[in-house]
């Protein structure tokens, strides 16, 4: 079995235990986004990109206390040490971390980051936001809550803000943070859809629609 198929088989069991915002369907969508961007980035290593996509949420801090699952899977794959390190570096640079993301230094890291962020916006991004909020018992919206545009990674992780607040703290910022040309192109329509959704939601909750 090649490393990509082996990795897919190993991670699927882990993602099946997560809520709908970070399940294996999320990984499949991120992979499709990455493949679309790969078509425009001929110098990128597709194998590294795909492995990083499969692994990027296995040890996500929202679900895991450490990186033991990620490290265990990487250890089972027939990869060179440099490849493993590259994948680990990519995963480290994917997370938004309240605006404190590490720099995506390689084209592979840029592709994986954009692919993951594309799945956080648009119709799917809206659905994922409320799926995660519901799983964590968060309010749908809180008009008294102010969005934080500057915060530490720890503050971002520990405060349970309402789902709509999350749009203003992260999701509406992602379009301008895309780092590949294809990612920026794909983000445009998804961003507009989120703006339209928030306008409609405001109208409905205020009795104006």
Automatic annotation (TrEMBL):
<protein>
    <submittedName>
        <fullName>HD domain-containing protein</fullName>
    </submittedName>
</protein>
<dbReference type="InterPro" id="IPR003607">
    <property type="entry name" value="HD/PDEase_dom"/>
</dbReference>
<feature type="domain" description="HD/PDEase">
    <location>
        <begin position="19"/>
        <end position="130"/>
    </location>
</feature>
<dbReference type="InterPro" id="IPR006674">
    <property type="entry name" value="HD_domain"/>
</dbReference>
<dbReference type="Pfam" id="PF01966">
    <property type="entry name" value="HD"/>
</dbReference>
């Amino acid at each position: 079995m090649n490393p990509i198929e082996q990795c897919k088989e190993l991670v699927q069991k882990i993602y099946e235990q997560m809520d709908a915002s970070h399940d294996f369907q999320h990984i499949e969508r991120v992979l499709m986004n990455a493949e679309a961007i790969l078509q425009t980035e001929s110098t990128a290593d597709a194998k590294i990109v795909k492995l990083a996509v499969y692994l990027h949420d296995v040890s996500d801090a929202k679900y895991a206390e450490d990186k033991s699952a990620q490290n265990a899977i990487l250890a089972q794959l027939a990869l060179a040490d440099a490849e493993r390190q590259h994948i680990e570096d990519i995963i480290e640079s994917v997370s938004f971390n309240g605006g404190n993301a590490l720099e995506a230094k390689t084209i592979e890291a840029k592709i994986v980051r954009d692919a993951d962020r594309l799945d956080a916006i648009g119709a799917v991004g809206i659905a994922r936001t409320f799926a995660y909020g519901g799983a964590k018992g968060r309010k749908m919206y809180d008009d008294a809550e102010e969005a934080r545009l500057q915060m530490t990674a720890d503050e971002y992780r520990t405060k349970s803000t309402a789902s709509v607040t999350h749009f203003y703290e992260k999701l509406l910022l992602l379009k301008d943070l895309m780092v590949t040309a294809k990612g920026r192109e794909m983000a445009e329509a998804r961003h507009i859809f989120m703006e339209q959704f928030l306008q409609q939601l405001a109208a409905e909750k205020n009795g104006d629609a």
